[in-house]
């Protein structure tokens, strides 16, 4: 969080203008290595004769592993024949290929640990190398050992991923700074880069900052092309459409490459390839025939150019990174779901969040006192608006010394306990900059233990942030982890030093500013020649920095009370692997319609790159949205995995209870809608936590063969529930177009209007009080309809099942996953996982509605990671705890006629009502028929069956 600063000493550092200052951030041409990389590709493109890569493999050096699932080869470059490189290609499980290249016997070591932070563990080779490496390459994968190509993934004769096909591979080797004036003696590269030369090899300046480059040039460039994939997605974080527009070629949408360099971008633009707070170097390429992906494990500043050599057919990308080895994973797919699963097997799936954290979060910079917090909590109650979490931004702390409560918070423990009385939690901010003052025990201990980030000369790095003169803990030092954990401990240990005693186990944490944000640093971050644990420069590790901090805090929160509980820590910065840790949000957005709209593709984009627990600030961080915008923004937020309202210190208060009706009631209804759908959210998170499939599924993920949906990024599906949402993000809208890919019936969630799909868009009414939400025919959606003040109060609430019959009029399916939502007991089998099935019974004209135990059906597999049937007992403690929770109502949409009877298995008649309407079958539109069954003796943990006789 950054903003218009109210503190005198910072005023000069932060712009008062209401827009990003692009000149604060580098363009490619202002980063010497990027300039060189782009010059190289321009030269190759302009070359009259085919551009030949100077890198080649020496075929006699090839060494295959005995299983033929790996090989190494010596690589040399004709530019510098004396420099040696080694290429290693490993085939891992799922046919994932890992391609590594490093300099051999160089003057120094290149940074090679980016992947290890992202990976769950070091991946093993595939036992049997079923993939044949040939130079023919008609099937499987091929390595081409000539001067042009290095690696190509070929499937069914189609080229899918081509590395170095355009010959842009270049790994700048380490060298000695010898000459006094470099430009007098051209190097081979000098001519090659066509004048883009050695500028910036050993030093470069940006505005008033000079980056000393003691290691000299070490950049890495590579082209990765997808000759048969017209769409690429991913490489978050950018405020850009989901299907990434081009940055080079004719008429590029953006003139700068997509930049990955975690930055605190003040009032970022709503459409730009500029870097933002997080970086996940994962790119998916998609076509009607297949999906493939690459994970390019780079932690240094990276720029990615994208263009489409043949529009609507192919995509070419060019990656330029400042440092690091080449360590690239090719994920073969061939479907979007397969990519998600492959990526999750290597980098880990999403951590299953605490259930309460999927509720509604209310934040503001700042709630100014403990009484303010109590009032906010009480006001939500008075207006019967559900809320799970109240947040405290930086002003709770004394002089921005995090953990230390300021004067207006005299009773933090009592405050948290008051809020917790109805199950609510608090989230309190802890930022990574530590005020440099000896009366701050956190700083003093970090300094004493030698845990702080150092300057290039070995001295303590000092920079400016909220707390004034500050220092940063080096979380690359594993020694910092145990120390950091201890600070959060709620267990007394007098020998352990300082800990946060004025806290409770219902206080969770927010890690902001962890890119890291340094107000007086270049581009508002840390200087690149700072050094970290292991001697690495900040330039080598920057993009991983935020994740390590997030991880350390999350581990600390998990173990605060001694026994592990599911943590909640929100982070602004992230990297590949952050999904294992916790939630992120899209940073300091602005209260404009454009920012509201772009928050959707931004959330989808991090989601497909593995990090599905994400959302944007409701209302926009900056500015004062009018009430129409705010209502629409609550509708967007209610359909984001992470749902938080937040506002800048200079904005007017905008808690939803402050408004008049009808807007207040509309917002109340949206909040209640979110809570009624919590079973759907939690079930979707289970799937993300096991299989890695994102909670929000863009159109192309659900319909990967329908090219009309490939660029859609304002509508999406909620897990596998069949719910399709398209929040309104334009002013004055009264209706919206929703694209329905398949020949299926869809129902309006609220009024049961029938829409029939099949490669066409339909117009759905969207007055202000209505978020366009459809249920796809064939789905059963479990909901909890009773409004409560917080989600823990819903634990024993009954369920309503919404059955949306498919176009046959006789089939639907749905799922429900539940556990205690807080501990790890689910990993011991304390959970329920049910499937609901509606199908035609053998007897004609009977719709059978059943609930079955999905854990037994699936052999235990897939319930949670690693559980087996033998570890699962249907009568487990959690199931016993909710044994009396019922299904109180079943609503069936689209039945073809009034039932003759509705009976339980034992023959008992159930009460029901039927509203005439359109049938799922046939062609009629209008409102669907509605059967409402009032059930008795139907329990959520049990198998049951209901027969609807027509
Ligand atoms: C280096 O040489 C170039 C070309 O002769 C010249 O323009 C430049 O001023 C020289 N730089 C220094 C620092 O001497
Ligand atoms: C996260 O923390 C665990 C426990 O300290 C550690 O083993 C792991 O390496 C850390 N991972 C990251 C990405 O920081």
Description of the molecule:
The chain has 950 residues and is of the alpha+beta class. Among the domains are: 23-60 and 133-327, no CATH class; 795-950, Golgi alpha-mannosidase II (Immunoglobulin-like, Sandwich), CATH 2.60.40. It is 18% helix and 26% strand. Strands 1, 2, 3, 4, 5, 13, 15, 16 and 19 form a 9-stranded antiparallel β-sheet that branches. Strands 6, 7, 8, 9, 12, 14, 17 and 18 form an 8-stranded antiparallel β-sheet that branches. Strands 31-30-29-28-24-21-20-32 form an 8-stranded parallel β-sheet. Helix 5 runs parallel beside helix 6 (412-420). The chain is globular. Bound molecules: 2-acetamido-2-deoxy-beta-D-glucopyranose (NAG) (2 copies). One 2-acetamido-2-deoxy-beta-D-glucopyranose is lined by residues 117, 481, 547-548, 551, 555, 577. Residues 181, 183-184 line the site of one 2-acetamido-2-deoxy-beta-D-glucopyranose.
Residues in β-strands, percent: 25-35%
Main sheet specs = 9 strands, antiparallel
Radius of gyration: 28 Å
Number of DSSP strand runs: 51
The unique ligands bound to this protein are:
2-acetamido-2-deoxy-beta-D-glucopyranose
Keywords: Endoplasmic reticulum, Glycoprotein, Glycosidase, Hydrolase, Signal
Pfam families: Gal_mutarotas_2 (PF13802), Glyco_hydro_31_2nd (PF01055), Glyco_hydro_31_3rd (PF21365)
Family: Belongs to the glycosyl hydrolase 31 family.
Domain Glycosyl hydrolase family 31 C-terminal: 692-781
């Amino acid at each position: 969080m950054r903003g218009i600063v109210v503190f005198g000493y910072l005023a000069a550092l932060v712009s008062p203008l209401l827009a990003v200052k692009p000149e604060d951030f580098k363009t490619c041409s202002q980063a010497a290595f990027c300039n060189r990389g782009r010059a190289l590709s321009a030269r190759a493109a302009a070359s009259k004769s085919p551009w030949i890569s100077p890198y080649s493999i020496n075929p006699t050096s090839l060494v295959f592993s005995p299983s033929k699932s790996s090989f190494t080869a010596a690589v040399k470059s004709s530019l510098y024949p004396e420099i040696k490189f080694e290429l290693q290609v490993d085939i891992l499980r799922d046919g994932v290929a890992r391609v590594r290249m490093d300099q051999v016997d160089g003057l120094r070591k290149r940074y090679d640990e980016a992947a290890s932070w992202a990976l769950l563990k070091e991946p093993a080779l595939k036992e049997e190398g079923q993939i044949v490496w040939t130079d023919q390459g008609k099937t499987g994968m091929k390595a081409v050992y000539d001067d042009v190509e290095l690696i190509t993934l070929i499937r069914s004769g189609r080229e899918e991923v081509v590395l170095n096909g355009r010959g842009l591979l270049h790994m700048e080797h380490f060298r000695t700074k010898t000459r006094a004036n470099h430009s007098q003696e051209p190097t081979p590269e000098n001519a090659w880069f066509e004048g883009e030369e050695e500028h910036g090899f050993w030093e470069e300046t940006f505005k008033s900052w000079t980056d000393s480059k003691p290691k000299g040039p070490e950049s890495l460039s590579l082209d990765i092309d997808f000759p048969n994939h017209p769409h690429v997605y991913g490489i978050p974080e950018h405020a850009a459409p989901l299907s990434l527009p081009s940055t080079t070629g004719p008429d590029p949408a953006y003139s700068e490459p997509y930049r990955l360099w975690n930055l605190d971008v003040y009032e970022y633009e709503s459409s730009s390839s500029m870097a933002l707070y997080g970086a996940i170097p994962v790119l998916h390429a998609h076509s009607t025939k297949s999906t493939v992906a690459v994970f390019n494990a780079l932690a240094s500043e990276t720029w990615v150019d994208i263009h489409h050599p043949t529009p609507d057919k192919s995509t070419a990308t060019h990656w330029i990174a400042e440092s690091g080895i080449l360590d690239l994973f090719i994920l073969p797919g061939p479907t979007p779901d397969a990519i998600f699963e492959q990526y999750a097997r290597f980098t880990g799936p999403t951590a299953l969040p605490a259930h309460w954290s999927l509720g509604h979060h209310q934040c503001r910079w700042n709630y100014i006192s403990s009484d303010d917090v109590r009032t906010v909590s009480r006001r939500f109650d008075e207006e019967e608006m559900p809320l799970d979490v109240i947040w405290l931004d930086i002003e709770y702390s004394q002089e921005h010394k995090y953990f230390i409560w300021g004067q207006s918070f005299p009773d933090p423990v009592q405050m948290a306990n008051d809020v917790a009385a109805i199950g609510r939690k608090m989230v309190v901010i802890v930022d990574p900059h530590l005020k440099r003052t000896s009366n701050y025990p956190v700083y003093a201990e970090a300094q004493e233990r030698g845990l702080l980030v150092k300057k290039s000369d070995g001295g303590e790095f000092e920079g400016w942030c909220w707390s004034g003169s500050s220092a940063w803990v080096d979380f690359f030092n594993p020694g910092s982890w145990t120390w950091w954990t201890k600070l959060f401990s709620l267990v007394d240990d007098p020998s352990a030093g300082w800990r946060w005693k004025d806290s409770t186990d219902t206080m969770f944490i927010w890690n902001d500013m962890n890119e890291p944000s340094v107000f007086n640093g270049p581009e508002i971050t840390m200087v690149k020649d700072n050094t970290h644990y292991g001697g690495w420069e900040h330039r080598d590790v920057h993009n991983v920095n935020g994740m390590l901090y997030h991880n350390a805090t999350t581990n600390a929160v998990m173990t605060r009370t001694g026994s592990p509980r599911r943590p909640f820590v929100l982070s602004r910065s992230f990297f590949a692997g952050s999904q294992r840790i916790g939630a992120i949000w899209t940073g300091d957005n602005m209260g404009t319609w454009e920012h509201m709209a772009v928050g959707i593709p931004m959330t989808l984009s991090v989601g497909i790159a593995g990090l599905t627990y994400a959302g944007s600030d409701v209302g926009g961080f900056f500015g004062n949205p009018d009430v129409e915008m705010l209502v629409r923004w609550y509708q967007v937020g209610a359909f984001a995995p992470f749902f938080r309202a937040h506002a800048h210190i200079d904005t007017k208060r905008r808690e939803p209870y402050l408004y008049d009706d009808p807007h207040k009631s509309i917002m109340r209804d949206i909040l209640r809608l979110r809570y009624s759908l919590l079973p759907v959210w939690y079930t979707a998170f289970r799937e993300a936590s096991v299989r890695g499939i994102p909670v929000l599924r863009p159109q192309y993920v659900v319909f990967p063969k329908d090219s009309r949906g490939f660029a859609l990024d304002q509508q999406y599906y909620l897990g596998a529930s069949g719910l399709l949402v398209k929040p309104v993000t334009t002013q004055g809208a009264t209706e919206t177009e929703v694209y329905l890919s398949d020949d299926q019936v869809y129902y309006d969630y609220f009024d049961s209007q029938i829409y029939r799909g099949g490669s066409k868009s339909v117009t759905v009414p969207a007055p202000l009080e209505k978020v366009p939400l459809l249920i796809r025919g064939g789905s059963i959606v479990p909901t909890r309809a009773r409004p409560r003040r917080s989600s823990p109060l819903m634990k024993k609430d009954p369920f309503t099942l919404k059955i949306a019959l498919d176009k046959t009029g006789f089939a639907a399916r749905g799922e429900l996953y539940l556990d205690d939502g807080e501990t790890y007991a689910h990993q011991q089998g304390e959970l329920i996982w049910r499937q609901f099935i509606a199908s035609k019974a053998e007897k004609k004209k009977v719709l059978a509605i059943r609930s079955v135990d999905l854990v037994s059906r699936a052999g235990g597999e897939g319930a949670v990671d690693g559980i087996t049937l033998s570890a699962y007992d249907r009568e487990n403690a959690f199931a016993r705890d909710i044994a009396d929770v019922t299904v109180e109502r079943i609503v069936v949409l689209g039945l073809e006629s009034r039932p003759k009877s509705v009976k339980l298995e034992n023959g008992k008649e159930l009460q029901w009502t039927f509203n005439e309407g359109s049938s799922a079958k046939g062609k009629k539109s209008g409102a669907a028929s509605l059967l409402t069954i009032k059930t008795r003796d139907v329990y959520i943990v049990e198998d049951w069956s209901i027969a609807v006789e027509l």
